[in-house]
Structures are given as structure tokens and as C-alpha cells.
């Protein structure tokens, strides 16, 4: 549940290495250790948040977004959100004044939050913005290039939609509290006081995923978190802990969600 009053956090008060274009775009570089939580807040600016290294989880009223190193998250202005650092991150954030967006951007897709797969070009553009060259013309071109790549970027599946209907949300919270468990919809339905048929319908309407697909998404999110925070975990043990019959079955499910095998993901950290 979100607090009744969400604090608006001025970017002027954010610590970190700061760069400003003087034209409505502000950039801040930060390092956060594993376990840090940036509690629920909002900004008057829109922002593109990228972890050049490490993994974070961004939570909005819509759901939880897992953001490994090859993803970035777009957060519209005044959208309440919280960030949990799952593995030490080098965060690079671009903040956009609304006047700048109105003048430079014409895409309605930026009105809602989403996670994008970061292309090599977008990755290099963001890093170049923080390389200390301080050339206004170059910076302006790099910002526009990043926004162009953002429009073209592929939406990510590393998202767990959170239902709002009370019974469905209680069932979702039970699964998220133990995503490695074997959760039968009949048992969950009894726990939350409804029928399996109703709960199945609620998951479909509230999350646009079947109950089975939603649970798989939650399991893969748990796997991403484990791989991010435990360098010694084996894929075989992780597959077993998550209830998969074999490593190939786990790897297939993991690739469906992330586009990478568990081994490839672990090597990115």
C-alpha cells in the first residue's frame, strides 16, 4: 500500500555528480549499495533511470519492474515510485523538465512508466553524457539521440503487474512472499475467500496474465534477484529451488522473460 501523502522530491536535493544542460535536462550519477531503498516519492520532472552496473527493482502503483543492467526505466513526472537496490548499482539518471518534453518530444508513450531494453547505442549515449566533456552542443545531440533510441526500444517483460482487487491482491502477495513455493489456485482461492474460477478471472482481468503466467513471472523475478545478490548460486540449485523439473526448463522460462539464459544474465553483473 502507498502512503496517503507521497513526498515530492526536488532533484536539487539529490546527492551525486550533477550535470545540467541549462536547457531543461538534468543528469545525476550515483552509486548505491545493495539493500538501499529509495522510499516512495515523486519528482516534478520525468526521468530515465539506468543502472550501468547492478540490478534494481522499481515499484509503482501499476506493479514491480525488475531492472537488470541491460534495461532502463522511464518514470513520468509526478508518478509515485520506490526503488530497491538488489545489487550494487552505478545509477545514471536523466531528468526532463515538462517544458523540454513538450517542446522536444511528441510521443504519447512517455505518459506511462515502462522498462526498455537498452541497445548498445543507448548505453553508449548515456555513458557519454557523463564522461566530463561538457560540450553543450554534443550534450544536446546525445540527449536527443537517447530519446530517439528510447522511442525505438523494445518494451521489457521483466514486469510483475500488481492487481488492485482486494482478494486478488491478497493472493498475489501470498505468492510474492514465497515465489519459490508451489501455489495451487484452488488453495489460494480458499485462503482469500473466493472460488478458483473467480480468482482465475480476476488475475486475467487485473494483470492481463493468466494465473500460471503471472506465477512464472514472479518466479523469474525471484531468480533475477537471487542471481543479482548471490554470486555463488548455481543455476541447477536455483532451478530446483524454483520448482522447475530441469535446468533446460528453467533456462527456457528465464529466456522467455529476460531474453537471456540464467548464465548469460549472471555474467552481466
If you had to describe this structure to a student in words, what would you say it looks like?
The two termini are 31 Å apart. With 269 residues, this protein is of the alpha+beta class. β2 and β3 form a beta hairpin. The protein contains 10 helices and 10 strands. Strands 1, 2, 3, 4, 5, 6, 7, 8, 9 and 10 form a 10-stranded mixed beta sheet that branches. α2 runs antiparallel to α3 (136-152) and α4 crosses α5. The chain folds into 2 domains: 7-152, Jelly Rolls; 161-268, Orthogonal Bundle (Arc Repressor Mutant, subunit A).
Task: Count all strands and give the number.
Answer: 10
Unreliable runs, pLDDT <50, ≥5 residues?
A: none
- Please name the fourth-level CATH homologous superfamily of the largest domain: Jelly Rolls
Tell me the distance between the termini: 31 Å
Number of helices: 10
Q: Give the class from helix and strand content and strand pairing.
A: alpha+beta
> Rough shape?
globular
Helices and strands, in N-to-C order?
Answer: EEEEEEEEHEHHEHHHHHHH
Task: Assign the CATH topology of the largest domain.
Answer: Jelly Rolls
The proportion of residues in beta strands is: 25-35%
CATH class of the largest domain, named Mainly Beta
Oligomer: single chain
GO molecular function, one term: DNA-binding transcription factor activity
InterPro entries: AraC-bd, Homeodomain-like_sf, HTH_AraC, HTH_AraC-typ_CS, RmlC-like_jellyroll, RmlC_Cupin_sf
Keywords: DNA-binding, Repressor, Transcription, Transcription regulation
Organism: Bradyrhizobium sediminis
Amino acid at each position: 500500500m502507498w502512503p496517503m501523502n507521497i513526498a515530492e522530491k526536488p532533484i536539487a536535493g539529490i546527492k551525486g555528480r550533477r550535470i545540467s544542460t541549462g536547457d531543461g535536462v538534468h543528469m545525476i550519477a550515483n552509486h548505491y549499495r545493495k539493500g538501499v531503498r529509495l522510499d516512495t516519492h515523486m519528482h516534478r520532472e520525468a526521468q530515465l533511470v539506468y543502472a550501468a552496473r547492478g540490478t534494481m527493482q522499481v515499484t509503482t502503483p501499476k506493479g514491480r519492474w525488475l531492472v537488470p543492467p541491460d534495461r532502463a526505466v522511464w518514470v513520468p513526472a509526478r508518478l509515485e515510485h520506490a526503488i530497491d537496490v538488489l545489487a550494487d548499482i552505478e545509477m545514471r539518471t536523466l531528468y526532463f523538465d515538462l517544458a523540454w518534453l513538450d517542446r522536444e518530444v511528441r510521443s504519447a508513450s512517455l505518459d506511462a512508466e515502462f522498462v526498455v531494453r537498452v541497445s548498445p547505442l543507448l548505453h553508449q549515449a548515456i555513458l557519454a553524457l557523463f564522461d566530463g566533456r561538457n560540450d553543450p552542443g554534443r550534450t544536446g545531440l546525445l540527449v536527443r539521440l537517447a530519446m530517439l533510441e528510447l522511442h525505438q526500444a523494445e518494451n521489457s517483460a521483466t514486469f510483475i503487474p500488481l492487481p488492485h482487487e482486494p482478494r486478488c491482491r491478497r493472493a498475489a502477495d501470498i505468492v510474492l512472499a514465497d515465489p519459490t513455493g508451489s501455489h495451487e489456485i484452488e488453495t489460494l482461492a480458499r485462503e482469500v475467500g473466493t472460488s478458483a474460477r473467480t480468482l482465475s478471472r480476476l488475475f486475467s482481468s487485473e494483470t492481463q496474465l493468466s494465473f500460471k503466467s503471472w506465477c512464472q513471472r514472479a518466479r523469474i523475478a525471484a531468480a533475477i534477484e537471487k542471481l543479482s545478490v548471490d554470486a555463488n548460486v548455481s543455476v541447477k540449485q536455483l532451478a530446483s529451488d524454483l520448482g522447475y523439473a530441469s535446468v533446460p526448463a528453467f533456462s527456457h522460462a528465464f529466456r522467455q522473460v529476460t531474453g537471456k539464459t540464467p548464465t548469460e544474465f549472471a555474467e552481466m553483473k
